[in-house]
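Changelog note: in this version the structure field was regenerated for every chain. One regenerated record is shown below for reference.
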Amino acid sequence: MATLVTPSSAVSISPLQISLDQIIAVARHGQEVALSDDTDFRRQISRGRETLERKLGEGEVVYGANTGFGSNARYVIPNDELAHHQQNLLEFLCCGVGEALPEEAVRAAILLRANALARGLSGVRLVVIERLLDLLNHHITPVVPRYGSVGASGDLCPSAYIARAMVGRGDVLYKGCRAPAAEALRNEGIARLDLQAKEGLALLNGTTVMTGVGSIVVDEAAYLFRLSLGALAMAAEALGSSPDYYHPAIHMAKHHPGQLAVAEMLNSLLFDSKLAIPLDEIRHRVEEAGRRANGNHAVAAAGESIQSAYSLRCAPQGLGPMHETLEQCRTVIEREANSVNDNPLIDPVSDRVYHTGNFYGAHIARAMDGLKLDLANLANWLHSLMALLMDDRFSNGLPPSLSPHVGVYQGFKGMQLVHTSLVTAIRHWCAPSLIHSLPTEQYNQDIVSLGTHAALTAMDIERLLRNAVAITLLSTAQAIDLRAGGGRMGGGTRPIYRTIRSVSAFVEADRALDGDIAAVVGLIERRAIPVLAW
């Protein structure tokens, strides 16, 4: 992770909304976060706390502050047990299982929890928000198991692991190692947080883990999508297809913004390519074959078709929806990231306590489920390109399996098998999560969103897709070299090809290629392969 940036460039928790780009800057790149010193803003947070304390002092029943949790809400807790009640919340919910969530996803969740609580409707003290920011700015990341959230009363179990670290319990990632939270806090001079009434619930009762994971997924999916279009453009060059399928006049006739954007991207990638062939030139070849046959009054069989396969010709129409999905997901993520998503809400302006369900994660679940379908469709698209490249019946003169010495060496035959394995796994994971609700928690949570499941399975798909994209890029680079076309590529595809060749040489004779795949995946993870911006 990158080192901290200067405070002047810190992301601010303030009345303004935070963006997906800011979430990624904090989660992935270590950007510092500061709580705004705006007096009115801080006063609004304190007023929420003051309102809650007054109501509790007057004996008003406030869910989760002086009542039991969930289905135990009918039990009223005595005043001398309120602080212990919040501490205990962190105990019984720390029963998650599975591998730890990625550090960047947990950092995103911490940022979003701080931003939600700072809206002033959660009834917490300023120090609670400040402790969350301390975790971020001192790079103390709680170890959070993958499984435990059903995404309805928020991300209870995973959020409990985050809150537990703030009070000095559990384990964290600190200075590259797993360490006790108490030790990390002590080393950084951070005081342990003593929870007061409702504060434990406010830290747990929200959608910030699923939204944090979703933020990472959307950011990475956007890069993979653009990189996949680069691979598609390279395949078009390797197969001698035409850039004319991406002419703006075609796509303006159908009006969809995603289709127009993909066509524009492919046009830019193929600009000045000497490998992609204009349709006029292809048509002249086909017409010439027809003229030769007509002299014999026979049906002409040209050496190529006037139209390429759908995976090349229909790319804007087929992949344009994913561009639109990514834009929609960004909107949903940013709305949820700037929401107050816990229960109950303490409104100092109206002097009311609202018992509500803003913790329900359906918006994130629906967005992630939709993105999973688009990721699977993109995987299918890459699989079709691989099929064209590998089969000499459809590859316009490329050797079978992209082997320069057919028969003696098998070329990319094994790579295609692995690619197919990855794509089938992606298709398996793309099933929706939202519809798999089950009643739980003594029928209090009788319907749940499974938003965290949706976000995590989208992350699983994205990680598999990295490998499928890497194999596609290696295959298209091999095909380009078989055409001796590295110097004749388009302005957008040439830098991609050169970057791939910097870590993987042309396959002249069969060799193990798992290391090559891993090297390209490493480039993808570091965003080291140049892609065009929208």
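Spot check on this record: The longest strand covers residues 97-100. The CA atoms of residues 183 and 189 lie 10 Å apart.
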